[in-house]
């Protein structure tokens, strides 16, 4: 590596390149088949439009585009009403983007990031630790391989708990509300929390207000729901249900 080259952390993009290449390739193949029949032009256009949409979305999510991925993640930090003293847990840390952001915002805090990672993701504990070192927070950030369905922490272990786009991905819990309850279990009484997930996806979580009532019934002092899609920096084209249209924040105090 050149002495002038500065290695930077890699946080990836929520829109995988395969969502661009796969429909794009199919579209090009269909376009080539139009010499056999003009009807092939229909699927060609459909698949090329799909590829173009995901390319557009990937660009908007990237730091070089609209940086919307980072700005959506930052909403968790903005709504975590915490003084930064003590310990904070990031559930489903992925590549440690939120964990590191927590460490930067709260320089007095000890930060723990947990994830199960797995073969479907390019992320790993090693990637998290490397990113934390590159961001100069490695001494305050700890990472563990753990399932969000069964956290290996005592009740009320953390002063604050955060999570971004994790609960719906956890395969070993059929009822995703159980994951929210497990996350709240490790929050200290009086502690703060901010969770962002597909909380507007009714087949997964039911009605948002009913979910809030369920959370209150667990003895939570304060809980509020915020629709992520209402953020003014998110363009309408990204508010489709399969993009960020079902995102919401659950924030409050235990």
Q: How many distinct domains? A: 2
Task: Give the overall average pLDDT.
Answer: 93
Distance between the termini: 48 Å
Q: Give the SSE string.
A: HHHEHEHEEHEHHEE
Beta-strand residue percentage: 15-25%
Briefly note the CATH topology name of the largest domain.
Rossmann fold
Strand order of the largest sheet: 3-2-1-4-5-7-6
The CATH first-level class of the largest domain comes to: Alpha Beta
- State the fourth-level CATH superfamily of the largest domain: Vaccinia Virus protein VP39
**Helical segment tally?**
8
DSSP, total strands? 7
Any low-confidence stretches, pLDDT <50, length ≥5?
A: none
Rg on CA atoms, Å: 20 Å
CATH architecture of the largest domain: 3-Layer(aba) Sandwich
Q: What is the helix fraction of residues, given as a range?
A: 25-40%
Shape: globular
Query: Largest sheet at a glance?
Result: 7 strands, mixed
What does this structure look like?
35% of the residues lie in helices and 18% in strands. It is built from eight helices and seven strands, in the order H-H-H-E-H-E-H-E-E-H-E-H-H-E-E. A seven-stranded mixed sheet has the order 3-2-1-4-5-7-6, sandwiched between helices. It has 254 residues and is α/β, with parallel strands linked by helices. The protein has two domains: 18-61; 68-253, 3-Layer(aba) Sandwich (Rossmann fold), CATH 3.40.50.150. The chain is globular.
């Amino acid at each position: 590596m050149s002495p002038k080259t500065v290695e930077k952390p890699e946080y990836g993009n929520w829109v995988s390149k395969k969502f661009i290449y796969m429909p794009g390739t199919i579209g090009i193949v269909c376009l080539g088949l139009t010499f056999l029949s003009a009807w092939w032009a229909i699927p060609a256009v459909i698949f090329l439009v799909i590829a173009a949409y995901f390319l557009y979305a990937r660009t908007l999510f990237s730091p070089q585009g609209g940086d919307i991925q980072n700005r959506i993640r930052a909403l968790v930090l903005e709504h975590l009403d915490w003084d930064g003293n003590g310990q904070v847990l990031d559930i489903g840390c992925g590549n440690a983007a939120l964990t590191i952001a927590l460490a930067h915002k709260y320089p007095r805090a000890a930060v723990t990031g947990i994830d199960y990672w797995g073969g479907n993701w390019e992320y790993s504990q090693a990637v998290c630790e490397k990113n934390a070192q590159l961001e100069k927070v490695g001494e305050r950030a700890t990472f563990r391989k753990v399932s969000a369905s069964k956290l290996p922490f005592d009740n009320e272990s953390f002063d604050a708990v955060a999570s971004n786009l994790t609960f719906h991905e956890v395969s070993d819990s059929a009822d995703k509300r159980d994951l929210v309850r497990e996350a709240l279990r490790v929050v200290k009484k009086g502690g703060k929390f901010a969770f962002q997930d597909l909380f507007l996806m009714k087949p997964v979580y039911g009605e948002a207000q009913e979910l809030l009532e369920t959370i209150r019934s667990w003895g939570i002092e304060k809980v509020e729901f915020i629709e992520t899609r209402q953020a003014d920096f998110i363009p309408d084209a990204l508010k489709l249900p399969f993009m960020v249209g079902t995102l919401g924040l659950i924030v409050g105090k235990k």
